[in-house]
Specification:
Elements: H1 4-22, E1 38-48, E2 54-65, E3 74-75, E4 79-83, E5 91-93, E6 96-98, E7 105-111, E8 118-126, E9 129-130, H2 133-136, E10 141-151, E11 154-159, E12 162-167, E13 171-179, E14 183-188, E15 192-196, E16 199-206, H3 210-214, H4 217-224, E17 232-239, E18 248-252, H5 267-345, H6 351-392, H7 399-431, H8 440-542, E19 554-563, H9 587-595
Parallel strand pairs: 1-19
Antiparallel strand pairs: 1-2, 2-7, 3-6, 4-7, 5-6, 8-9, 8-10, 10-17, 11-12, 13-16, 13-18, 14-17, 15-16, 18-19
Helix pairs in contact: 1-9, 4-8, 5-6, 5-8, 6-7, 7-8
Keywords: Signal
InterPro entries: xxxLxxG_rpt
C-alpha cells in the first residue's frame, strides 16, 4: 500500500481530475465567432493561514484556441500576470488580456484579490478549551480540529413559485495528515480515517451551501437518501507534542451532472404501491374467503366422518344379520336332508300325516321368508344411510358402496324369490296331499329334485351373501379410517388458512397501507426537491470562470487550498548559528508541480 502522503496527494489530485473529466472535450466546446474551439483550464491556488483565513491567491491558467491565441481578448481580474512558457508578455488594458504571439496555447499565472467562492475556517481546542493555532504547537492532550466550509457563490432563483437563495454546488474535499507518533485515537465526524503504518489520513467530503439551498427540503432528502449535508467536520485525537502539516483542500464546480438532468419522479413509485395495495386487498379478501370455505369444508368433513361411522356400524349389523340368515338356511336344508329319507320310509302312512309334515315345512319356509323380509328392511335402512352420506357431502364418492349394496340387494332378492317359490310349492303339496297320495312317490321325487337344486343355489347364494356382507363391512371400516384422517387434515387446513388470513391482514394493515401513506406524503415534498435539483444544476452550469475568460470559451476551474503548518519554533545551534532545515519536497510542492 502507498504511503499516506501519497494517498493524500492522490485524493486531492483525484478530485481535480474529476473536474477535468467532467468538462466537455474540445470537440464539444462552444465555438467562437470564427468557428474555432476555445478552451481554458484554470487552477486557483489559495494560500491560507492555519485558521483557514486567506493570505494570497495565485491563478494558473492554460488558454487554448484552435485558430491561435494572437489577438484573442480575454477579460480578467488578475494582476502581475506572467507568461510561464516563454518570454512574450501579454498586454493588459482596461481589464482585457491579449497575446501577441504565435501558437495555439498560452500558459500564465497571476495574482487575484477576488473573494473565492469557498471560504474555510479552522478552529482548535485543547482539552475542551479554545486555543490559537500558534499556541497549540508542542502541546499534549485531547485535541479537537473543526473544519468549516462556507459557500460565497449564490444567486436567487424561483422554485415552486417561491424565490430562494441557491448556492453553486462545489464538490469539496479536505485532507489532513496525522502521524501516529503525534496523534492517537483519531476520529472524524462525517469523515473517514485511513490508518497505515506510522501515518493516518483524514479525508473530508462536502458540498458547502447545499443544506442552505435545500432549506426545509433537506429533511426530505434525508428520508429518501443517505446523502451528507454537512458543512462542518470535527477531528478528535489524543496529541503528544502537537504539530500539524498543511491541511490541503480542493474544490470544483465541474460536477458530472448529466445523470441528474433527466426527469425523476416518485409518482411511479406511488402508482406502483397503489397497484400493490389493490392487489394486496384482493389477496386478503381471497384468503378470507378461502378461510371461510375451508372452515365449512372442515365442518362437512366432520359430518362425513360421523356418517361413515354410522355406515360402518350399520354394515356390522348387516353382516351379523346375514350371518344369522345364512346359518338358518343351512340349518333348514340340514333338516330337509334328514326329513326326506324318513318321508320315503313312511310312504305307506296316511296322506294326512304327509300333508301335516309338508305344512310344517311350509311354515318354516315362511319363517325363512320373514327373516329375508327383515334383512330386506335392514338393507333399506342401510341404503338410506348411504344416501345421507352423499347428502352431507355431495363431493363424497359412494360409487363403491352403492355397487356392493346393489350386488347384495340383488342376491337377497334372488334368494327371497327362491324361498317364496319354495313356500308356495310346499303349500300346494300340503293342500293337495289328500288327492295326491297316489302320486306321492312321483311328487316326492320331484320335490327332492327341486329341493336339491334349490339347496345348491341357496347354499351358494348364502356363501356369496355372507362374503358380500363381509366385504361391505370391511369397506365401511376402511372408509371410516380414511375419513377420520381426511377430517383431521381438513381441520389442519382450516386452522392454517385462518393463520394465513390473519397474516395477510397484518401484512396489509402494518406493511402496505403505512408504506403507501408514507410515500404519498413524500411525493409532494420530493417533487419540490426535484425542482430544487434542476435549480442547482442550472446554478452549477452558470459558473463560468474565477478570473475571467474569452467570450464563447469553455472553461474548467479547480480550487486548491493549503494552510500553514503548525509547529514549534526551530531551535538554534550553539554559537548563535541557526539550524538550517533540510529542504525537502512536500505535498503542496508536488501538487503545484502537477499544474506547472
Amino acid at each position: 500500500m502507498k504511503h499516506p502522503k501519497t494517498f493524500a496527494r492522490r485524493a486531492v489530485c483525484g478530485l481535480l481530475a474529476l473536474s477535468l473529466a467532467a468538462a466537455p472535450s474540445l470537440s464539444g466546446a462552444v465555438l467562437a465567432s470564427d468557428n474555432s474551439a476555445i478552451t481554458k483550464q484554470e487552477t486557483v491556488y489559495m494560500f491560507l493561514a492555519a485558521d483557514g483565513s486567506l493570505k494570497s491567491t495565485t491563478v494558473s491558467s492554460w488558454l487554448h484556441a484552435d485558430s491561435g491565441v494572437r489577438g484573442l481578448g480575454e477579460p480578467t481580474s488578475l494582476t502581475d500576470i506572467k507568461n510561464v512558457k516563454s518570454e512574450t508578455a501579454p498586454t493588459l488594458k482596461d481589464g482585457v488580456l491579449s497575446w501577441d504571439m504565435d501558437g495555439n496555447d498560452a500558459y500564465y499565472q497571476g495574482a487575484s484579490d477576488t473573494t473565492p467562492p469557498i471560504a474555510v475556517s479552522i478552529t482548535y481546542k485543547l482539552d475542551g478549551k479554545d486555543i490559537a493555532p500558534a499556541d497549540l504547537a508542542g502541546k499534549s492532550g485531547k485535541v479537537e480540529i473543526t473544519v468549516a466550509f462556507k459557500n460565497n457563490c449564490r444567486s436567487s432563483a424561483t422554485v415552486g413559485g417561491v424565490s430562494r437563495e441557491i448556492y453553486t454546488p462545489f464538490a469539496t474535499t479536505a485532507v489532513l495528515d496525522l502521524p501516529t507518533d503525534t496523534f492517537q485515537n483519531v476520529k472524524c465526524s462525517g469523515g473517514s480515517v485511513l490508518s497505515e503504518g506510522t501515518n493516518q489520513v483524514v479525508t473530508i467530503l462536502a458540498v458547502p451551501g447545499l443544506k442552505d439551498s435545500l432549506g426545509k427540503d433537506a429533511d426530505t432528502l434525508k428520508q429518501i437518501s443517505d446523502f451528507s449535508l454537512q458543512d462542518t467536520f470535527t477531528v478528535t485525537a489524543e496529541a503528544k507534542n502537537f504539530k500539524l502539516g498543511s491541511v490541503v483542500i480542493a474544490a470544483t464546480p465541474s460536477l458530472p451532472l448529466d445523470k441528474l438532468k433527466g426527469d425523476i419522479s416518485l409518482g411511479e413509485l406511488s402508482s406502483g404501491l397503489s397497484q400493490l395495495q389493490s392487489a394486496t386487498e384482493q389477496l386478503a379478501s381471497g384468503t378470507q374467503q378461502l378461510s371461510e370455505a375451508l372452515a365449512t369444508y372442515s365442518g362437512k368433513m366432520e359430518e362425513l366422518d360421523s356418517g361413515i361411522s354410522d355406515l360402518s356400524a350399520g354394515a356390522g349389523d348387516l353382516l351379523a344379520g346375514v350371518t344369522q340368515y345364512t346359518d338358518g338356511v343351512q340349518q333348514l336344508f340340514d333338516e330337509i336332508d334328514q326329513l326326506l329319507p324318513g318321508l320315503e320310509a313312511q310312504m305307506g302312512q296316511s296322506g294326512q300325516a304327509i300333508a301335516q309334515d309338508l305344512q310344517n315345512l311350509a311354515g318354516k319356509g315362511q319363517t325363512a321368508s320373514q327373516e329375508m323380509q327383515d334383512i330386506t328392511q335392514q338393507m333399506g335402512a342401510l341404503y338410506q344411510q348411504i344416501l345421507a352420506i352423499k347428502q352431507a357431502d355431495p363431493s363424497a364418492d359412494i360409487t363403491a358402496l352403492l355397487g356392493a349394496f346393489g350386488a347384495l340387494k340383488q342376491q337377497l332378492e334372488e334368494h327371497g324369490a327362491t324361498l317364496t317359490a319354495l313356500g308356495q310349492d310346499m303349500q300346494t303339496l300340503a293342500t293337495d296331499a289328500g288327492s295326491m297320495q297316489t302320486d306321492l312317490a312321483t311328487g316326492l321325487q320331484t320335490a327332492k329334485e327341486q329341493l336339491a337344486q334349490a339347496e345348491a343355489q341357496l347354499r351358494q347364494g348364502s356363501t356369496d351373501l355372507r362374503q358380500g356382507a363381509k366385504d361391505l363391512s370391511d369397506g365401511a371400516a376402511g372408509a371410516k379410517d380414511a375419513t377420520g384422517q381426511l377430517s383431521g387434515a381438513a381441520r389442519t387446513i382450516s386452522e392454517k388458512s385462518g393463520e394465513l388470513d390473519q397474516g395477510m391482514n397484518t401484512y396489509k394493515t402494518t406493511g402496505i397501507d403505512p408504506a403507501k401513506g408514507q410515500i404519498d406524503e413524500l411525493v409532494g415534498d420530493a417533487d419540490n426537491l426535484l425542482a430544487l435539483k434542476d435549480a442547482l444544476i442550472a446554478q452549477s452550469e452558470s459558473y463560468q470562470s474565477f478570473a475571467g475568460s474569452p467570450e464563447g470559451c469553455d472553461t474548467t476551474t479547480a480550487f486548491v487550498m493549503k494552510t500553514d503548518e503548525i509547529s514549534a519554533p526551530k531551535t538554534e545551534k550553539k554559537g548563535g548559528e541557526s539550524k538550517k532545515a533540510e529542504k525537502k519536497t512536500g505535498l503542496w510542492d508536488r501538487i503545484k508541480g502537477l499544474f506547472s
